[in-house]
Amino acid sequence: QVQLVESGGGSVQSGGSVRLSCAAARYTYRPYCMGWFRQAPGKGREGVAVIDLNGAPTYADSVKGRFTISRDNAKNTLYLQMDNLKPEETAMYYCAAKMSFACSLTPLTYNFWGQGTQVTVSS
């Protein structure tokens, strides 16, 4: 089991920035893949960015150049720096993790999930 706790959400104006954090705990082996996913009202959950144990990131096309994912293995913490946010990116943002390789952006492949943190972007 892996316990994940997100923090850092909030309200920001269009073009603003938010930094999310996800603290991981209660695991025997450090998750190989960790990532951020989001779900807007009435829409399915989508992958935003994922990162492997060695720090190699993968981004959704829609956030490339604006979002940066990173992880501090010593602190067991995952981060997502989001810059130049858009109103359509208003959503609940979730942290997720899995032990297996192949860090995809597909939500169904992840075993462990946090409870989410809300990000609201106003125009």
Overview of this protein structure:
The protein has 123 residues and is mainly β. The protein contains no helices and 11 strands. It has strands at residues 3-7, 10-13, 18-25, 33-39, 46-52, 57-59, 67-72, 77-82, 91-98, 112-113, 117-122. The strands form 2 sheets. Strands 2, 4, 5, 6, 9, 10 and 11 form a 7-stranded mixed beta sheet that branches. The mean pLDDT is 96.
List the helices and strands and how they pair.
Blueprint: E1 3-7, E2 10-13, E3 18-25, E4 33-39, E5 46-52, E6 57-59, E7 67-72, E8 77-82, E9 91-98, E10 112-113, E11 117-122
Parallel strand pairs: 2-11
Antiparallel strand pairs: 1-3, 3-8, 4-5, 4-9, 5-6, 7-8, 9-10, 9-11
Strand content: over 45%
Count of strand segments: 11
The end-to-end distance, rounded to whole angstroms, is 39 Å
Shape: globular
- Determine the mean pLDDT: 96
The sequence of SSEs as H and E is EEEEEEEEEEE
> Which segments are poorly predicted (pLDDT under 50) over 5 or more consecutive residues?
none
**Largest sheet descriptor:** 7 strands, mixed
Tally the helices.
0
Proportion of helical residues? under 10%
Pairing-aware structural class of the strands and helices?
mainly beta
Gyration radius, to the nearest Å? 13 Å
